[in-house]
Write a structure and sequence with these properties.
alpha/beta, four-stranded mixed sheet, 3 helices, 8 strands, globular, binds copper (II) ion
């Protein structure tokens, strides 16, 4: 079988089975990331499908995960975890979800999840008020989301 037909088969299978196979992803809350970045979510950017779940794992203590006001798609439910505890969130509405660690928001501890390949709320998300370091990191993540979506890359950090 050629590579192309294998790919097409996979794509077809995905289309048929997607709703029944919601995936679970993990984001670790870390004092130090693999890139030596202090106070960070890893991976900081995730691309998932509607209905998928993300588990924010308290790999290091003293962090939490909370959606950032103004950085959610219309009608999406905000989420807020507790310090040093795991939290699982299922994302149903397509769009961009910015989130933060409250104690380290000022140090730029933020992350971004793109659901269903949608950047519909990009402009609104860009206008959310944040501390300078958080804005700096979030801007890079939003750029990555846009680039990823334009390129139809699909690989964006998926762990199946
Ligand atoms: Cu933190």
């Amino acid at each position: 079988m050629t590579r192309l037909s294998t790919l097409m088969l996979c794509a077809g299978a995905l289309l048929l089975t997607a709703p029944a196979h919601a995936a679970e992803f993990e984001v670790k809350m870390l004092n130090k990331g693999p890139d030596n970045q202090m106070m960070t979510f890893n991976p900081p950017f995730l691309k998932i499908q509607s209905g998928d779940t993300v588990k924010f794992v308290a790999a290091d203590k003293g962090h939490d995960a909370e959606s950032i006001p103004g950085m959610l798609p219309d009608g999406a439910t905000p989420f807020k975890g507790k310090i040093s505890q795991d939290i699982s969130v299922t994302f149903d509405k397509p769009g961009l979800y910015g989130y933060r660690c409250v104690p380290h928001f000022g140090m730029g501890m933020v992350g971004l999840i793109e659901v269903g390949g949608s950047t519909a709320n990009l402009d609104a998300a860009k206008q959310a008020k944040m501390p300078p370091l958080a804005t700096k990191r979030m801007t890079a993540l939003l750029d990555e989301a846009v680039k990823n979506t334009t390129a139809q890359a699909g690989a964006g950090g998926a762990v199946h």
